[in-house]
Amino acid sequence: MAAMIHTLIGLFSGREERGKVFGILGSANGLAGVISGLTAGPIADRWGYSALFVVATLLYLLLPIIAALMADKIIARAAKSAEKVVEQKLLSNRAYLLLFSASTLAFIASGAALLGRPLQMNRLGFDSTAITSAVAVGNLFSLPLPFLIGWFSDRIPRKYLLAACYLATMLGMATLAVASEVWHFWLCAMFMNIAAISLTVGAALVTDFVPTRLLSRGMSSFTSTNWIGITIGFVATGAALDRLGVPLVMMIGAVLAVVAFALVSSLRTPTAHWETILTTADE
Questions:
Q1: Measured between alpha carbons, how far is 30 from 153 in angstroms, rounded to an integer?
Q2: How is domain 2-282 classified at the architecture level of CATH?
Q3: Helix, strand, coil content of the chain in percent (nearest 5)
Q4: Are 191 and 169 in contact (CB under 8 A)?
Q5: What residue segments make up the domains of the chain, in order of their start?
Q6: Which region, left, alpha or beta, applies to residue 42 given φ > 0 means left and ψ of -120 to 50 means alpha?
Q7: Do the beta carbons of residue 233 and residue 253 sit within 8 Å?
């Protein structure tokens, strides 16, 4: 679903306002995080987790209705031979592979934080309301940031803002490694919410250099780094926490974020003339 939404935004937004539009989408995610962070804990404490899951299910039932109201954009398709040529170029493109790898590593770290933070707070004796308060505070702090970062990304190279997001990932993981008070976890949540904006900036960057006729493929691959990374982070963290402990696992996540920072810092704007390649292949 995220891939489809990002693809539609990429198709309908112009290059000069692309970052801002993706930023608005990111702000919507932050607003949802604030609302859920303020309500999920009290609902679970008062009525139990079954009631919380029922509420979440009812909200998800609204999504197909909203999706049916969305407009679509029909793109003229190139010949299969042309698309195959460009797809091969895309998958072997250094910039795209660097962006894909950096995003995956950053979200592995995010997955470790998402699992490690509530577990650590639970081990320290915090209740459900305190645990979800970290989610609310983090989202409240970062609520305007996706829009602001998206706006700035229309004016300065997006890779610098993307690198800043990965730097925030490193700071969030390092904070979680030493956290013991509730405000430590709030600070960690703030950093990790800045890190989550990387998907917004990265999606705008992908739209910049992936041809329109292949945007759905390029975007779906890139947005999958969120789930790929978080899933790996969950599995690896769950297996490693009991053996290595929270501080060491979180510092490993910080190292992954540093690697992601280095990868995106070396990113160069792709120079392939995609439409020329498509035209040549069509002929």
A1: 18
A2: Up-down Bundle (1.20)
A3: 85, 0, 15
A4: yes
A5: 2-282
A6: alpha
A7: yes
What residue type is assigned to position 13 of the chain? Answer: S
User: Which pTM was predicted?
Assistant: 0.72
Catalogue the E-assigned strands of 106-171. Answer: none
User: CA–CA distance from 269 to each of 93, 94, 158, 159, 205 (Å)?
Assistant: 11, 10, 10, 9, 9
Residue 178: phi and psi, rounded to 5, are -115, 5
Angle at 190 between CA 187 and CA 192, to 5 degrees: 110
Place of tokens 């890779």: 159
Instruction: With beta carbons less than 8 A apart as the criterion, state whether 274 and 88 touch.
Output: no
Would you state the structure tokens that stand for residue 69, as one six-digit string? 């109201």
What does the pLDDT profile of the chain (283 residues) look like in tens digits?
A: 555 665 666 555 665 666 666 666 666 766 776 777 778 878 888 888 888 889 888 888 887 787 777 666 555 555 555 555 555 566 667 778 888 999 999 999 999 999 989 888 888 888 878 887 887 787 777 777 777 877 777 788 888 989 999 999 999 999 999 998 889 999 998 898 888 888 888 888 887 777 777 777 777 788 889 889 999 999 999 889 888 888 899 999 999 999 999 999 888 755 444 444 444 444 4
d(CA 224, CA 91): 15
Q: What residue type is 277 in one-letter code?
A: I
